[in-house]
Amino acid sequence: MSPLLPDASLSVIVGTKELHRTQVVKKLWAYIEREGLHDTQNRRMINVDSALKPIFGGKKQVSTFEMTKLVSKHLKPT
Known about the structure:
Elements: E1 4-6, H1 8-14, H2 21-35, E2 45-47, E3 61-63, H3 64-72, E4 75-77
Antiparallel strand pairs: 1-4, 2-3
């Protein structure tokens, strides 16, 4: 697994350094937990804030399963 470079919208959350995909997901989860973005009624859903909106295609909510697919679009090989 080679490191990937986040684009400008993703680097707001995870930083600008090259990261492995697992590290990117870990940092995203830390941000989601810190900001309290889990939906209170359905924990499988993430409420999207202004920082995550460009990453998640402008959606207001995404499922935890959909998250990694959407994030992949913002990672480039180095």
